[in-house]
Amino acid sequence: xxxxxxxxxxxxxxxxxxxxxxxxxxxxxVTGTVEFDSRAVGPGGLFLALPGxxxxxxxxxxxxxxxxxxxxxxxxxxxxxxxxxxxAGDRGPQTAGVLEHDTDGSGAAVLSALARLARAVxxxxxxxxxxxxxxxxxxxxxxxxxxxxxxxxxxxxxxxPPGSFNNELGHPWTVLRATRDTDYLILEMSARHPGNIxxxxxxxxxxxxxxxxxxxxxxxxxGSPEAIAQTKAELPQAVPSSGVVILNADDPxxxxxxxxxxxxxxxxxxxxxxxxxxxxxxLDQLARPRFTMHAGDAQTEVQLGVFGDHQVTNALCAAxxxxxxxxxxxxxxxxxxxxxxxxxxxxxxxxxxxxVTVIDDAYNANPDSMRAGLRALAxxxxxDSPARHPRRSWAVLGEMAELGDDAITxxxxxxxxxxxxxxxxxxxxxxxRSMSAMHHGAALEGAWGSWGAAAEKGAINVANGDxxxxxxxxxxxxxxxxxxxxxxxxxxxxxxxxxxxxxxxxGGGARP
Length: 512
Description:
Blueprint lengths: L3 E2 H8 L2 E3 L3 H6 L1 E2 L3 E2 L10 E3 L12 H6 L4 E4 L7 E3 L21 H22 L3 E6 L4 H12 L5 E2 L10 H6 L8 E5 L7 H8 L4 E4 L7 H4 L2 H8 L1 H5 L5 E5 L3 H4 L8 E6 L6 E3 L3 E2 L5 E7 L2 E6 L7 H14 L4 H10 L9 E4 L5 E5 L5 H16 L10 E5 L9 H14 L4 E5 L3 H14 L3 H4 L4 E5 L2 H11 L5 E5 L7 H9 L11
Parallel strand pairs: 4-5, 5-6, 6-7, 8-10, 8-11, 9-10, 11-12, 12-13, 13-14, 19-23, 20-21, 20-23, 21-22
Antiparallel strand pairs: 1-3, 2-7, 14-16, 15-16, 16-17, 18-19
Helix pairs in contact: 5-12, 12-13, 14-15, 15-16, 18-19
């Protein structure tokens, strides 16, 4: 964060000083990072006292100061130097309810203050030349954010969130990672309710907006696809006329957003009707795409270092950002080739010494990303060449959360798709109606073809990740391909980690 005194921060957030005099506050500088985990606090830092699932950050204020924090941003006095903020009320973004365990409103007060601090810092840095890039979409935000960070890294200093820090806490926390040396600030913009993206954009107004797609993620929260589309459209509406909006024009709903932004529009497509577009796409044996990228009169060959055909659009969007910022098409191609998966549990592909390939995409899942993961699994296992020896494939799938009334139908469709893609074994992880629908859909689809009749194929429903791991360890054979995918709440990341860490298995499939 930029150097600010405790007194300056108190003035920005509208807080009062506790256990520190005005004179001391005017001399005490925050020169470190802003943290909400007391274990991450370092010298010169500012600690956020937020409520958690099992504890309250206010209880850790003293230990944060002992670790080097110069002050605490809190909702009440904590016995150490603090900036105390009142309940959020009508000031700033409406953050109440963001923290699940915020029973007394203290979290909303601190988050609202954090948003005001981030807004003030962003405004000063933009005046000094910082370019802010905002990315939204129902799926692919994190992968695209990582690709944008890679291509802009060839042009200057970049700050981007780790993983999926994209909500009312992660967004301003990331903004406050930027310094006067930062050239590009890349921000994911997530939403669970209408107005969320507009609120995030108000904290750090983007000069470049990227809209990837409008799908059914969080349909249960929004209530309708139309509400999702309107919320995603808040990003292009927030970009000023001096900026640029990059739209995935292969999604008709996204393409229509060109009519509601004042900014210049750049369309990316999988055909030659886009401003930035990809020629015919081929995949290598691990489903890494290769294509000719076109931008105006320029073109170059691109070999991606990430996995899955769906990454082509993500890469084109990243390329459009970098080209707008002054990169050459050759710089972009080189950066994309070097950019492998960065964020954990998002299309990370690992081949063990026994030839077992694990596709770890366990962080998040919605119908669109689930279909993309299954297609990548099918490609790695089978490809399109008769010369390739088919590999056995395993789809280990958990629940897709927040689909509302469509949950049963969407899980049923995914089960059926696994059969149509000729996945060898479907392991449905978890109980409940949605997972039963996935298992039942696969069983019904497979009953009519060779998939259901083959002894080595079929679907099985297990209770949890431990049961799935035991099954896989007993039955996986050298050379098999395993996809692990679910919404983060299903907790299948630990299963994927265990599969990657496992040593070779013997030829019969049983562990030594």
